[in-house]
């Protein structure tokens, strides 16, 4: 209940400090839930707590810089007052720290170090919910801050450039790392790193069609990745299998579970007529419009790698 309350507050609040409060409410609840999966889950969650504390500190320090410049924490008032404040190192530092803090919360490459172990060892029902929602809400918070609170600020433009390049690298690196995993949940964790790259790449393009694609991908990935983690956890609970190699014959043993896994995987790869196809289609249209050819290449390569690491499971099942 606390976790859901915090996540809803992040989406609904119009105040930068309240955003920090809700981030920490959701994080504390997540730490408690994730740590219940045994010793390895506790160690992974403690690492997440340390990194999350750094993220929260960066965000709060950035908010402090902007408050010192404007005297307000209300997002609407901040937009108007920042326009009257000239460019300064304090403004650039404030925006940078806010973006870095939220990027760590969203597990954007290269700030994703906490995610694989947490998603691998935490209880499957908790992982399914956290993987589906928590990082997406942080991504939405970045979108809201950069486009609606800091829109038009040069520092926000620079932050979007950074997020775009980080997203492009994440798209390929996450898929490549997922391909090399032997544990199904760790594979899905690195797949999430790649999918967050798609979202931030779309945010960085800035065109309406790219933003539609990015926000659509937020919703699509939330549903799909939650389904994949729940199926992987259910298979592990029923059969004790957690490795990719252990999925041999799983389609005959658990046909409905593997059908759900297959539909979600096809959507994640982006094959028509799934939702994943349309979100990637809009992202690619935005990339073509912006002539972001490196990003286009990254999407194509990542799609191929995603198809390969899911095909390894399908050919065994």
Sum this structure up briefly.
The protein is mainly α and 317 residues long.
**Rg estimate, integer Å:** 19 Å
Major sheet details: none
Judging from the principal axes of the Cα atoms, what is the shape?
A: globular
How far is it from the N-terminal to the C-terminal residue, by CA? Answer: 37 Å
Total helices: the number is 14
Mean pLDDT across all amino acids: 85
Q: How much of the sequence is in beta strands? A: under 5%
Class by alpha and beta content: mainly alpha
Give the beta-strand count. Answer: 0
Any low-confidence stretches, pLDDT <50, length ≥5? none
Write up this protein.
Helix content is 82%, strand content 0%. With 317 residues, it is an all-alpha fold. The protein has one domain (2-316). Helix 2 (16-34) runs antiparallel to helix 7. It is globular, with a radius of gyration of 19 Å.
Which descriptors apply to this entry?
single chain, 317 residues, mainly alpha
Topology (SSEs and partners):
Elements: H1 2-12, H2 16-34, H3 39-70, H4 75-84, H5 89-105, H6 115-121, H7 124-149, H8 154-179, H9 184-205, H10 208-239, H11 250-253, H12 255-269, H13 275-290, H14 293-316
Helix pairs in contact: 1-2, 2-3, 2-7, 3-5, 3-6, 5-7, 5-8, 6-7, 6-9, 7-9, 7-10, 8-9, 8-14, 9-10, 9-13, 9-14, 10-12, 10-13, 12-14, 13-14
